[in-house]
Amino acid sequence: RERVRAMFYHAYEHYLESAFPYDELRPLTCDGQDTWGSFSLTLIDALDTLLILGNVSEFQRVVNVLQEGVDFDIDVNASVFETNIRVVGGLLSAHLLSKKAGVEVEVGWPCSGPLLRMAEEAARKLLPAFQTPTGMPYGTVNLLHGVNPGETPVTCTAGIGTFIVEFATLSHLTGDPVFEDVARKALKALWKNRSDIGLVGNHIDVLTAKWVAQDAGIGAGVDSYFEYLVKGAILLQDKELMSMFLEYNKAIKNYTKFDDWYLWVQMYKGTVSMPVFQSLEAYWPGLQSLIGDVDNAMRTFLNYYTVWKQFGGLPEFYNIPQGYTVDKREGYPLRPELIESAMYLYRATRDPTLLELGRDAVESIEKISKVDCGFATIKDLRDHRLDNRMESFFLAETVKYLYLLFDPDNFIHNDGSVFDVVLTPYGECVLNAGGYIFNTEAHPIDPAALHCCRKRKEEQWEVEDLMREFYSLKKNKKFTLKRAADHGEGESAKDPEDASSEKGGETRNSKKSSRSLLSCPSQSFNSKLAVLGQVFLENN
């Protein structure tokens, strides 16, 4: 654990000295470069890692730096996917951890705050990408002008299906449903366009919904779509998202799984197209552990660990039949996925093999990639040549998952035995009780926070009272189905006037009422429980 802490500070301090305010450190030349926009990305990505390591003073300093220095009104073409997972995810996580880090939060937190406003501003810059006929977003957006004319409509599956965690969190905290709505629409568009055998491909045209790359698998281009179905289901307690994932899981097992490896297959036929393991696929055992499939997860994890031991890292592509790297894909950019799976599986099993992988990772990274100015991407695992780049995910994910693997008492692993009670404008709220959901950039989201900012609590109670009243009426058989015959809606059609008129003490016959079936009279909330079970709220 202390070696991991030292790794973090070696990289972080050199980023601050040599690269800030650029996005990333170039560790071989000790300078910086902008890569995914121009957001001081490594600083945003590393922020919650600082708190996990216990450094509250630096967390507080960085929060102030980001508030003063980050501007999203810039003429930059940004990846919609990367900006969401790194910037929006990083800011949301830091916002929700602010109070724990001793930041003086404003009245109304966690339903308001400067980092939440920054996350919302960044997310709004991404919304134009979702304005397509299918609801699936473009892959790139200009932060000032929206989607460029002539922008390619071809986006990878993960670039369409990796928004629900951040966007639903934003919607729940801000009260604006637009973010969750676009994320759900995109998820469902992919689901609707799966093949007859239940698989999705790699790249799709977001204007026509035609699959451009038809390779189906669990790795690059697809990976976090599956991850977000599971994590979105847990975060939102959403059975529909989980059932979608479980259907995909059946198809993945039927067509792509061979001897605890997962291959790439043609999405319509199920025939093998690439017998290759990609390092990005190493998240899968961790995802399996989240749905309780621990035995299968361990078997697959051990396959992947044999590759790590062969090279001292995971090559981007590994040819399974040949047992060796694939040409031009021999690098290891210090990715976190295998360590992430080890962390999840260690929480589930306490198997010491998983700690050995962690120790191997620390030793490999220190021995091969450590340089004077940080840690460098490994360009080729065969001869240990290095590349002049340190991706921001090294501090956001790789170091974080390693630290959490070796720190069983970290607050992130809280089992609910301790928690904070926070007063919000909407009542008392429990936070920091554990159960954190990591986004795909390892930014932890506290699921309890999504229940802190629900407006119209009193209306919710009124609905419950009304439902109780309705069922007591039902028992006494005092309700009618008068309009069923008139409107051809079968037995389920009820007269909204009849349902709501009790308050006025009179029952009006539907035929005498000139008001349309779908309108709401201007009365109290009680009378707005209207047609076919739909609740009409004032802002609609």
UniProtKB/TrEMBL annotation:
GO molecular function terms listed in the Swiss-Prot or TrEMBL record: calcium ion binding; mannosyl-oligosaccharide 1,2-alpha-mannosidase activity
Cofactor(s), names only, from the UniProt record: Ca(2+)
Chain spans, region Disordered: 484-520
Biological-process GO terms, alphabetical: carbohydrate metabolic process; endoplasmic reticulum mannose trimming; positive regulation of retrograde protein transport, ER to cytosol; response to unfolded protein
InterPro entries reported in the protein's UniProt record: 6hp_glycosidase-like_sf, EDEM1/2/3, Glyco_hydro_47, Seven-hairpin_glycosidases
Chief place where the protein resides: endoplasmic reticulum
Endoplasmic reticulum found in the keyword field: yes
Keywords of this entry: Calcium, Endoplasmic reticulum, Glycoprotein, Glycosidase, Hydrolase, Metal-binding, Unfolded protein response
Function statement: Involved in the endoplasmic reticulum-associated degradation (ERAD) pathway that targets misfolded glycoproteins for degradation in an N-glycan-dependent manner. May initiate ERAD by promoting the first mannose trimming step of ERAD substrates, from Man9GlcNAc2 to Man8GlcNAc2. Seems to recognize and bind to exposed hydrophobic regions in target proteins.
Annotated protein name in UniProt: alpha-1,2-Mannosidase
Organism: Pygoscelis papua (Gentoo penguin)
